Amino acid sequence: MHRRFFLQGAALLACSALAAPAGVVAALLPANPVFGRSLPALQGGETPLSSWLGQPVLMNFWASWCAPCVRELPLLQSLHERYPDLAVLGLAVDTQANVQRFIDKVPVSYPLLLTGTQGVALMRELGNKSGVLPFSVLFDRDGHVADRLVGELQNDDIQTRIEHIL
């Protein structure tokens, strides 16, 4: 019984998509489910990822023990400063104590959120099937995945990708 209603709803959405302009169709589609979550902030409290819907987002998964992650932190900081309309988020697949000790030595001004061990499942959900760090995801203003990058970011490459979503 529920299957029939689901199929009818999908058919209606498909028909309306054929008759509607592309921008309207995009508005009908849901943003990535990741934006329905809240994560602990390094300083405490829960932070809803939905706070950043409406602007492009660079979500970077990292850990204090990951050498390529550490090497790309200055690049992420410079992107945060260079592109004020871009939300740069650091999602630490690490403990709060480890991240705090690290950030005391290498501070950044963009938001740091803690995923702990759940970060691996979240990365896989976002397309990183191997769970490799660092992992970055670019989202458009509507919260849809625009690009995925596995491995250390390179300055020219990431800037070109960012300019496509601004």
Task: Describe it.
The chain is of the alpha/beta class and 166 residues long. It contains six helices and seven strands, in the order H-H-E-E-E-H-E-H-E-H-E-E-H. The protein has helices spanning 2-19, 22-28, 67-82, 96-105, 118-125, 155-165; strands at 38-40, 46-48, 57-62, 87-92, 112-114, 135-139, 145-150. Strand 1 and strand 2 (46-48) form a beta hairpin. The radius of gyration is 18 Å and the shape is globular.
Which short descriptors sum up this protein?
single chain, 166 residues, alpha/beta, 5-stranded mixed sheet, two-stranded antiparallel sheet, 6 helices, 42% helix, globular, disordered N terminus
Average pLDDT score: 86
Number of strands: 7
Q: Mind summarizing the main beta sheet?
A: 5 strands, mixed
Helix content range of the residues, please? Answer: 40-55%
Q: Low-confidence spans: pLDDT under 50, at least 5 residues?
A: 1-26
Secondary-structure-derived class: alpha/beta
Backbone shape: globular
User: How many helical stretches?
Assistant: 6
Strand content: 15-25%
Strand order of the largest sheet: 5-4-3-6-7
Strand-and-helix sequence, N→C?
HHEEEHEHEHEEH
Give the end-to-end Cα distance, rounded to a whole number of Å.
44 Å
* Backbone CA Rg: 18 Å
Outline the fold blueprint:
Blueprint: H1 2-19, H2 22-28, E1 38-40, E2 46-48, E3 57-62, H3 67-82, E4 87-92, H4 96-105, E5 112-114, H5 118-125, E6 135-139, E7 145-150, H6 155-165
Parallel strand pairs: 3-4, 4-5
Antiparallel strand pairs: 1-2, 3-6, 6-7
